[in-house]
Design a protein that fits this description.
The complex is a heterodimer of chains A (about 425) and B (about 90). By secondary structure, chain A is α/β, with parallel strands linked by helices. Chain A has ten helices and 18 strands. In chain B, strand 4 and strand 5 form a beta hairpin. Bound molecules: flavin-adenine dinucleotide and zinc ion. Chain B: InterPro entries: SoxD, SoxD_sf.
């Protein structure tokens, strides 16, 4: 087992040639039987295993990951964390996530580089100001922080923005100071290490290829490393969810789409927090290495390619130039894409399924990184208690049937518009 | 990604808008199972990883609806046809 990290272990290793470090988690081989199996070693799967062990005392748990942990969206996202939702089904959940972020590093004994540098959503019209004022009030009702700031206050925070754009002048913004960024890989590694320390098996290069069924229930999975059985099985495979549920004839309100992100060459500190454009889909922050990390819309068509197309590159760069024209002087170093599980109302699902033994965590759209702690916490609860927690009670699989949609954007059952 | 429109020829995907899977067919509202059938039609998707027939609208071209056969793993276009013909 890896030892506890502390200033003393740092100093001791500094004086012993850094030879005293042990692997942060065991490279476990799958055992034939577990209490709970979590499929998918992204942030959500690993957090689920950690909270199962930590909060519910269920330690006979394995996480099965087809590649290496964090090789999916967990390692591809733009790392923004925030709790600035409008609807009652969403906001308390995301605020709980923010609270877990605030204590995460002490809890995991791992530096996840959680940085509450602020998230600023700009508005450009009177109607948008009203909508943001309402959203800010909704945030406060859930106990989150929010401030509606005017143009001069925005200028003090981010003087580099294009305030007098002819069509979209900046009127102000909704600021959440507790929002910010976290280091995505470190979140994955931190949860993996902490779960491993509690006895969870983290099994990499182990792809689930089928389900073992008995009397209608799911009692195990077939994998590339042999069959593994468990009393309960939780899916946390994000954009790959439909590929697995297809094997069970379970059709879902989910489409898989592609989202691209970009990083520029490194600069001295210029962007203080996260800034989002209100009149086009564009958002930007600056990594601790200095690169500007930015992105925009999904491409808009179903895709499992983890690779986007040029029209979106053009769209994102146009929006970037409208908001922050000096970006045109920068070289973009890289762009990459991930596999998004877009849902019919833009909100996630954390629930039991009609199939006994099978539990579902999916529908994260392009916003599931910030949800990682609360998603794992609530999915662990649902798995352990066989019932949702109040925080994920609205994230039901059957909500499209009962009409209880959670449509933040109000665009209806069209996944590529959320 | 470029889409060969049967009317306009090979055109950049930027000229098209995407609706989604072409398979769901509007159910009969008078059928006894209409409520269930409409739910499935509006909300549930096969979401295949592989070839998929889907509806695209050529808004910046001939303004016709197309059914495009496309592999969602590679974005390779396997065939296109006017929706009026492909779906009738
Ligand atoms: C470009 C981009 C930018 C984003 N920006 C943000 C952001 O700023 N803020 C935010 O909150 N969210 C953001 N997101 C969304 C966020 O990354 C995802 O919603 C979230 O990571 C999904 O949960 P996860 O970490 O568990 O998923 P993943 O990391 O995708 O985990 C799923 C895992 O399941 C594994 N798997 C799949 N099939 C199988 C199988 N058959 N057997 C075993 N394992 C399998 C995969 O290999 C993968 O590791 C962004 C996403 C992308 C792509
Ligand atoms: Zn055409």
């Amino acid at each position: 087992m890896s030892s506890r990290y502390s200033v003393f272990s740092l100093i001791a290793n500094a004086f012993s040639g850094q030879k005293g470090w042990t692997p942060a988690w065991r490279d476990a081989a799958p055992r034939p039987d577990y209490d709970v199996l979590v499929i998918g070693g992204g942030g959500h799967g690993l957090a689920t295993a950690y909270y199962l062990a930590k909060v519910h005392g269920i330690r006979n748990v394995a996480v099965l990951e087809k590649g290496t942990i964090g090789s999916g969206n967990a390692g591809r996202n733009t790392t923004i964390i925030r709790s600035n939702y409008l609807l009652p089904g969403n906001q308390p959940f995301y605020e709980w996530s923010m609270k877990l972020w605030e204590g995460l590093e002490q809890d995991l004994n791992y530096n996840a580089m959680v940085s509450q540098r602020g998230v600023l959503n700009l508005f450009h019209s009177d109607a948008q100001r009203d909508a943001f004022a309402r959203r800010g009030n909704s945030m406060r009702l859930s106990g989150a922080d929010s401030e509606l700031i005017d143009r001069d206050q925005v200028r003090a925070l981010a003087p580099f923005l294009n305030f007098d754009h002819a069509r979209f002048p900046i009127q102000g913004g909704l600021l959440q100071k507790r929002g910010g960024t976290a280091r995505h890989d470190a979140v994955v590694w931190g949860y993996a290490r902490a779960a491993d320390r509690l006895g969870v098996d983290i099994v990499q290069n182990c792809e689930v290829t089928g389900f073992i069924r008995e009397n209608g229930a799911v009692v195990g999975v077939e994998t590339t490393r042999g069959p593994v059985r468990a009393r309960k099985i939780g899916l946390a495979v994000a954009g790959s969810t439909s590929r697995l549920t297809r094997l069970l004839d379970l059709r879902l309100p989910i489409e898989s789409h592609v989202l691209t992100a970009f990083v520029s060459e490194g600069l001295k500190p210029v962007v203080p927090g996260v800034v989002t454009f209100g009149m086009g889909h564009f958002y930007v922050s600056q990594s601790d290495k200095g690169g500007l990390v930015f992105g925009g819309d999904i491409d808009g068509y179903n895709s499992y390619a983890q690779r986007g197309n040029l029209p979106v590159v053009e769209d994102v760069c146009e929006a970037a130039m409208a908001l922050m024209p000096q970006l045109g002087r920068l070289r973009v170093l890289r762009s990459w894409a991930g596999l998004m599980d877009m849902s019919m109302d833009g909100s996630p699902i954390i629930d039991r399924t009609p199939i006994p033994g099978l539990y579902l965590n999916c529908g994260w759209n392009y916003g599931g990184f910030k949800a990682t702690p609360a998603s794992g916490w609530c999915f662990a609860w649902t798995l352990a208690q066989d019932a949702p927690h109040a925080l994920n009670a609205a994230y039901r699989l059957d909500r499209s049937r009962t009409g209880h949609m959670i449509d933040e954007k109000g665009v209806g059952a069209q996944p590529n518009l959320h | 990604m470029r889409i060969p429109c049967p009317y306009c020829g090979l055109r950049d995907a930027h000229e098209f808008s995407y609706l989604g899977d072409a398979a769901p067919q509007r159910p009969d509202p008078a059928a006894p199972d209409a409520a269930d059938a409409f739910h499935d039609y509006v909300y549930l998707r096969d979401n295949p990883a592989g070839p998929m027939r889907e509806l695209w609208y050529h808004g910046a071209g001939c303004r016709r609806w197309l059914v495009v056969d496309r592999d969602t793993r590679t974005h390779a276009i396997l065939g296109t046809a006017f929706a009026t013909e492909a779906r009738s």
